[in-house]
Specification:
Two copies of one chain form a homodimer. Chain A contains six helices and five strands, in the order αααββαββαβα. The longest helix of chain A has 14 residues. In chain A, a hairpin with a 5-residue loop joins strand 3 and strand 4. Among the domains of chain A are: about 40 residues, no CATH class; about 70 residues, 2-Layer Sandwich (Alpha-Beta Plaits), CATH 3.30.70.920. In chain A, helix 1 crosses helix 2 and helix 2 crosses helix 3. Chains A and B meet through helix 1, strand 1, helix 4, strand 3 and strand 4 of A and helix 1, strand 1, helix 4, strand 3 and strand 4 of B. Strand 5 of chain A pairs antiparallel with strand 3 of chain B, so a sheet runs across the interface. The first copy, chain A, binds a DNA duplex through helix 3. Chains A, B: Keywords: DNA-binding, Transcription, Transcription regulation.
DNA sequence: GTTGAAATTAGTACGAA
DNA sequence: TTCGTACTAATTTCAAC
C-alpha cells in the first residue's frame, strides 16, 4: 500500500527513490514493484495531461438511456468514440454516464445530437456541462480512509448493518425523511 | 501531441525510448519533455491502480445539491474526504458530482447518510452505483478526434454554428423534438 | 529481506547544421 | 529548432550474505 501511495503521486519516481521513501531496500522494492505490476494491482502508468492546454477546454457528462438488449452494440460504438474519456454503467434513472472532452460547446452539441442520437442503442441522452473540476485524485486507496480525520477509529470490523435489499438508491434527504417516519 | 500520446499510455517510458517512438532525437526529446512539464501541459505522472484488488470494490456517484453561498465550506469538506476520487461542479439538476470508492455498499451508505448529510453546505444528495466501468482513457487529446472514424475530415475550421445562448442543456431526445417543431 | 559492485542506461552540455 | 556526440551521474541487475 505504501508503494502504491507513492506511485500514484509520482509515477515516474525511480525504484531506488521509491525504496527510500517506503523504507525498504532497493532490491526488495524492485521485487515488489514487479509483483504489483504482474499481479495487475498497478494497471498502467500514465501522464495526467492538462486538457485545457491541450485544446480541449470543454468537459461534459452525457447520461445515456440504453435500449434493452442493445448493450453490446452500445459498447462497440463507444470504442469508436475517442473523445470519450470515461464511461460507466450505473444504477438509477439513466443506464450509463459518459464523460467527454471537446474543443468547444458546439462540438459537444454536435456529438450528442448528430453522433449519439444516430446510435440505435441510444434511447435518450441528457447532457450536463462541467464548470469546474474541484479535485481528481489519481486513485483512492483503502489507507486513505483514516487520513484527514481528526480522530481515527481503530479500524473496527464494522459489519454490514444495512442489508442491501433494504437500501434505497435515492436522494439522501428523501431517504432520511423516510427513515425518520419508519423509526418513529 | 505525439509525445503526449505516448506518455499517457506509458508514463514510465524512458526519454530515449520516447524519442525513438516519436521520431525525434534524444536531446530534443529531453528538451520537449521538460518544456511540457514546465508549461503545465503534463500535470503529473501517476500509476493507475486496480481499486478492486486494492480492496475498494464499490464505486458510487453522489450528486450533490449545494446550499448557495456555502461553496467554500463544501470545498473545504471535500478536501477532508480522502475516499473521494473525483469531484466536478456541473450544470443541470444538481450542483456537483462526486465519485467515491469504498470497500462495500454499506460504507457508501454510511458516507452519504452520516458524513455528507452532516455537512451544512449539502442540501440534498442522490446516490447511484457504478455497475461497470466500460472504459477509462488516461486523457483525451485533440488528435483523438479523427481516430476511429472511417472517413476523416480534413480538419475544417468549423465555426460555432450554434450560439451558446440558444443551446438547451436538456435531454437530446427532447431537444430534437423541440427543434423539429421550430424548424417546421 | 539486505547490501555492494558491475553493467547498463539516463541525463547534461555544447558545437554544428 | 533540431541533431549528434561525448561526458557525467544515476539506475538496474545480479551476486553473495
Amino acid at each position: 500500500m505504501k508503494i502504491l501511495e507513492v506511485l500514484r503521486e509520482n509515477g515516474r519516481i525511480s525504484v531506488a527513490a521509491l525504496a527510500e521513501r517506503v523504507g525498504i531496500s532497493r532490491a526488495n522494492a524492485y521485487t515488489r514493484f514487479e509483483a504489483l505490476r504482474a499481479d495487475g494491482a498497478i494497471k498502467r502508468f500514465t501522464a495526467e495531461i492538462d486538457h485545457v492546454r491541450a485544446g480541449l477546454g470543454i468537459t461534459a457528462l452525457v447520461f445515456v438511456t440504453v435500449r434493452q438488449q442493445m448493450w453490446k452494440q452500445f459498447r462497440a460504438e463507444l470504442a469508436r468514440m475517442p473523445e470519450v474519456e470515461y464511461c460507466a454503467i450505473t444504477t438509477g434513472q439513466h443506464d450509463a454516464m459518459i464523460q467527454v472532452r471537446m474543443a468547444d460547446v458546439a462540438a459537444v452539441h454536435r456529438l450528442v445530437t448528430e453522433r449519439m442520437a444516430n446510435i440505435p442503442a441510444v434511447k435518450a441522452t441528457e447532457t450536463v456541462f462541467i464548470l469546474d473540476e474541484v479535485l481528481r485524485r489519481p486513485y483512492v486507496l483503502p489507507t486513505d480512509r483514516d487520513a484527514g480525520r481528526t480522530a481515527r477509529r481503530p479500524a473496527a470490523p464494522e459489519p454490514a448493518e444495512v442489508p442491501l435489499g433494504k437500501m434505497r438508491f435515492v436522494g439522501a434527504a428523501e431517504g432520511r425523511a423516510a427513515l425518520r417516519k419508519e423509526g418513529g
